[in-house]
């Protein structure tokens, strides 16, 4: 959802450049507002995202995201998982894949 953009930006700031490279297969220095908007505004006919969050008091923080995006004819799809770098190795990525 568009209102998730600040949390998404905070999540991305806690992912190393190396982990972003492995996720996007290119060097990413910064995500623009348009990039973040595209990530938070999902076309449910072709995209799905599951987000792992932790709620502390009245705020939520994103811990990891899994996303599937199909091509226009719904034959092939890209599937990706991204977990906050400091939380790797704890099984969160596996749990997101099982979603």
From TrEMBL:
Name the InterPro entries on file. Acyl_CoA_acyltransferase, GNAT_dom
Q: Does the keyword Amino-acid biosynthesis apply?
A: no
Checking SUPFAM superfamilies in the record gives: Acyl-CoA N-acyltransferases (Nat)
**Domain named N-acetyltransferase: which ranges?**
23-98
Q: Which superkingdom does the taxonomy of this entry point to?
A: Bacteria
Report the Pfam families cross-referenced here. Acetyltransf_1
Q: Which organism is it from?
A: Shigella boydii
GO molecular function term, any single one: acyltransferase activity, transferring groups other than amino-acyl groups
Alphabetical UniProt keywords? Transferase
Question: Do the record's keywords include ATP-binding?
Answer: no
Name under which the protein is recorded: GNAT family acetyltransferase
